[in-house]
């Protein structure tokens, strides 16, 4: 009722911007406490992220991972599920990509390997999301706890597999052999240069395009299919969903399958796009960062792209910042991330209720 | 064989200590209806504050005070978000874990400039091991002597404190008025409110206790178990404590047993590295490391017993009935 009187731009733009400004303000205070100038730091950060070709490339490369995990969190969120296991699903998804590449790179051309790797990432990631989903839907165990446990199980499993089975013979480093080049996703600067467009060298690769396609897919799925409607109903009011005859267990399981599959695509970008071998800890916290991206992006694909680019810029700009001002570590970005989760997630009601109240009163008056 | 067992149990006590503190911390919080994913962050924050305090002032006790203050402040942020502003408990916990993971490294780089570590702590800046009276003299007595001198004696004060906290928690939760109200708030906050008791105030107090216990866990890690703070040194202990809390079904004594079991598995994993078992061959370390999580998942799924948490856990309290 009262929601209708609040102008749309308040919820879409004003509140998220206010939250991020608050997060920046607090991070600025941290930088001030370290004894550096926050304005100068912000300058380096923005230049590092957007000031030159390579910087933009890196920003979008980080954003690729964050789009995948952000979408993963938001699909589950739409159904009222908190998938905190994106980290584990991404890790196992990377295993799927790695296994496809390692087994086919000697025999198959790129256009066979690439679709199979996409399927591998999705199937492995989805499988890792399936078990917690099944346990939640059919056996009533809480999905947050099980997905946390599955992050640790994934981590141990990967260490075991890589160290004992996939490690290159005679090497100490815990990673697989490097794939042949026909199992590499092409870099965007390689794709563009024959067309006469020169962009700087960066790890930005074809996975970025796939990430954008995934956004379109999720948008269509959630807002333009019967299943998406069921998912949103389940997320808004589970009792009503059950009463309306929706098979909530089935929707729950499918939501987590899709969520896990999306998280698994991080493996495409990292394993097939950049590292070109299967290695430990390539997920590097992207699964958790996805929570911030999804909250910031209000669970909408367009918002997620914007939030992912913002966080990608923080990652890349943070590296530049640490280079220019050595007393500031790149971990400052993690602090900002946490503050965004705090302000736009945990403390969302702090401003929202007051601002909405203000606009409702104004509309009434 | 007996000597090996004593050594492993000794290691179990050391590894279990932070788990016991943190799991009991979670017990106070969750019994009062607040889900606490942020145990991990509070442990890490306290580990850093304790090590920094101990390094600067040269006293482990001052370090401990700093650790507890840091951890309680984080618990209060959690309370501010979850109790006052009815925020999502999980999101708030994730936020705290993320902020602390970044902030500890940022601050320690600035304060100590050692790649995110604190200086190595020596002497009074650490909690040193306490040797029981006559421990040396009794060591030669078969069985009992070994248990007394090698297993029970020779730990630092925080280890004993952790074990002492279990009966204390039992008493507080089940035998005091505060404990009764705390449990009631976790099961049926409306009833507590109807009785004229503030739900928010009880939950805040539960979180203060939770913060103090997490503070002890963190201080133990950086000023007793190790000699200084390392980046990400909590290494999932908060999550494992959460698993132990669930495995112990939110009750003090079973939680202690769960912590000891998980600690023992950790000691086994270290021992089993590269050891061939006749008939089975070498058991991968990871298979043992992963057992606490697998067991917790199985328990939650109802395959081994059934874990039912406090009824109102994770739900913000709103006065009017929805």
Short synopsis of the structure:
The complex is a heterodimer of chains A (365) and B (322). With 365 residues, chain A is mainly alpha-helical. Chain A contains 16 helices and no strands.
Question: Level of helix content of chain B?
Answer: 55-70%
Q: Percent of residues of chain B in beta strands?
A: under 5%
Q: Could you estimate the helical fraction of the residues of chain A in percent? A: over 70%
Give the termini distance of chain B in whole angstroms: 61 Å
Describe the global form of chain A: globular
User: What's the total count of β strands of chain B?
Assistant: 4
Total strands of chain A: the figure is: 0
Multimeric status of the protein: heterodimer
**H-E string of chain A:** HHHHHHHHHHHHHHHH
Q: Helical element count of chain B?
A: 14
The most extensive interface, with participating residues per chain, is: A-B, 47 and 48 residues
- Point out poorly predicted stretches of chain B: none
The main pleated sheet of chain A reads as: none
Instruction: Indicate the proportion of strand residues of chain A.
Output: under 5%
- Alpha-beta content class of chain B: mainly alpha
Largest sheet of chain B: 2 strands, antiparallel
Distance between the termini of chain A: 17 Å
Global structural class of chain A: mainly alpha
Order of helices and strands of chain B: HHHHEHHEHHHHHHEEHH
Cross-sheet strand order for the largest sheet of chain B: 1-2
Pfam families (chain B): BPD_transp_2
Membrane topology (chain B): Multi-pass membrane protein
Protein name (chain B): ABC transporter permease
Organism (chain B): Marinomonas pontica
């Amino acid at each position: 009722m009262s929601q209708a009187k609040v102008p749309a731009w308040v919820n879409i733009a004003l509140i998220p911007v206010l939250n991020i400004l608050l997060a920046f303000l607090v991070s600025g205070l941290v930088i001030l406490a370290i004894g550096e100038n926050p304005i100068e730091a912000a300058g380096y950060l923005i230049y590092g992220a957007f000031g030159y070709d390579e910087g933009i490339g890196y920003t979008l490369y980080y954003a690729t991972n964050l789009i995948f995990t952000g979408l993963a969190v938001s699909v589950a969120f739409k159904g009222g599920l908190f998938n905190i296991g994106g980290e584990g699903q991404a890790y196992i998804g990377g295993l799927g990509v790695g296994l496809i590449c390692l087994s086919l790179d000697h025999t198959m051309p790129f256009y066979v390997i690439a679709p199979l790797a996409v399927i591998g990432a999705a199937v492995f990631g989805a499988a890792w999301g399936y078990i917690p989903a099944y346990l939640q839907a059919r056996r009533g165990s809480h999905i947050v706890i099980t997905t946390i446990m599955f992050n640790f199980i994934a981590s141990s499993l990967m260490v075991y597999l890589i160290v004992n089975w996939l490690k290159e013979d005679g090497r100490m480093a815990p990673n697989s052999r490097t794939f042949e080049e026909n199992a590499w996703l092409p870099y965007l600067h390689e794709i563009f240069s024959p067309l006469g467009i020169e962009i700087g060298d960066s790890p930005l690769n074809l996975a970025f395009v796939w990430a954008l396609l995934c956004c379109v897919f999720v948008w269509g799925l959630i807002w333009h299919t019967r299943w998406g409607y069921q998912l949103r109903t389940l997320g808004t009011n589970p009792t009503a969903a059950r009463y309306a005859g929706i098979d909530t267990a089935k929707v729950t399981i499918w939501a987590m399958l899709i969520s896990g599959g999306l998280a698994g695509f991080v493996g495409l970008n990292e394993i097939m796009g950049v590292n070109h071998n299967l290695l430990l800890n390539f997920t590097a916290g992207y699964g958790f960062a996805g929570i911030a991206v999804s909250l910031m992006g209000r669970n909408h694909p367009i918002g997620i792209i914007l939030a992912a680019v913002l966080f990608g810029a923080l990652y890349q700009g943070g590296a530049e910042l640490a280079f220019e001002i050595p007393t500031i570590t790149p971990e400052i970005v993690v602090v900002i991330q946490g503050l965004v989760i705090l302000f736009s997630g945990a403390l969302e009601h702090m401003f929202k209720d007051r601002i909405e109240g203000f606009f409702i009163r104004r509309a009434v008056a | 064989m007996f000597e090996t067992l004593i050594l492993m149990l000794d290691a179990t006590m050391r590894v279990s200590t932070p788990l016991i503190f943190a799991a009991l911390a979670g017990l106070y919080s969750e019994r009062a209806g607040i889900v606490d994913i942020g145990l991990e962050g509070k442990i890490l924050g306290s580990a850093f504050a304790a090590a920094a305090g101990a390094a600067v002032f040269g006293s482990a006790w001052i370090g401990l005070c700093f650790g507890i203050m840091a951890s309680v402040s984080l618990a209060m942020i959690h309370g501010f978000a979850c109790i006052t502003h009815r925020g999502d408990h999980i999101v708030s916990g994730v936020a705290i874990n993320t902020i602390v993971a970044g902030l500890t490294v940022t601050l320690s780089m600035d304060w100590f400039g050692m790649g995110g570590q604190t200086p190595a702590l020596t002497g009074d800046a650490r909690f040193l091991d306490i040797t029981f009276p006559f421990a040396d003299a009794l060591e030669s007595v078969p069985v009992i002597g070994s248990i007394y001198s090698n297993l029970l004696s020779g730990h630092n004060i925080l280890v004993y404190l952790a074990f002492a906290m279990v009966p204390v928690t039992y008493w507080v939760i089940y035998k005091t008025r505060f404990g009764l109200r705390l449990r009631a708030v976790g099961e049926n906050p409306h009833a507590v409110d109807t009785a004229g008791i503030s739900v928010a105030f009880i939950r805040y107090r539960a979180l203060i206790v939770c913060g103090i216990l997490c503070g002890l866990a963190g201080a133990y890690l950086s000023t007793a178990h190790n000699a200084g703070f390392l980046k990400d040194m909590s290494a999932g202990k908060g999550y494992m404590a959460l698993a132990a809390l669930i495995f112990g079904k939110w009750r003090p004594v079973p939680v202690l047993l769960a912590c000891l079991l998980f600690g023992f598995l950790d000691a086994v994993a270290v021992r089993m590295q590269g050891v061939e078992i006749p008939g089975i061959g070498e058991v991968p370390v990871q298979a043992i490391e992963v057992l606490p999580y697998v067991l917790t998942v199985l328990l939650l799924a109802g395959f081994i017993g059934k874990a039912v948490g406090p009824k109102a856990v994770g739900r913000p309290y709103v006065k009017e009935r929805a």
